[in-house]
Automatic annotation (TrEMBL):
Name of the protein described by the UniProt record: Lipoprotein
Region annotation (Disordered) ranges: 49-79
Biased composition (Basic and acidic residues): 49-67
Keywords, ordered alphabetically: Lipoprotein, Signal
Organism for this UniProt entry: Parerythrobacter lacustris
Signal peptide feature range: 1-20
Length: 79
């Protein structure tokens, strides 16, 4: 019985989220179109990230420790 109640509560919480298209506040407008563009960007286009803004992560794991290579820029502080 408790599992059923817990499941019902979780299902109700999951259904609470509402997805609707984004809109501007009354009296506000989207940013002006960039130079050379035919029309201003839509809200969805403004939310898309370029590949450089969100690069993929490198998940290469080290299996064992390795010696570090010499770093030519690792200089002692000036005196």
């Amino acid at each position: 019985m408790r599992k059923f109640v817990l499941l019902a509560i979780l299902a109700a919480l999951a259904a609470c989220g509402q997805r609707a298209p984004l809109e501007t506040y009354p009296g506000e407008s989207l940013p002006v179109a960039p130079t050379g563009a035919d029309a201003p960007a839509t809200a969805d286009e403004l939310l898309e990230r370029e590949a450089q803004a969100a690069p993929e992560r490198s998940v290469e794991l080290r299996r064992r420790s390795e010696e570090r290579e010499d770093d030519p820029f690792d200089l002692p502080p000036p005196e």
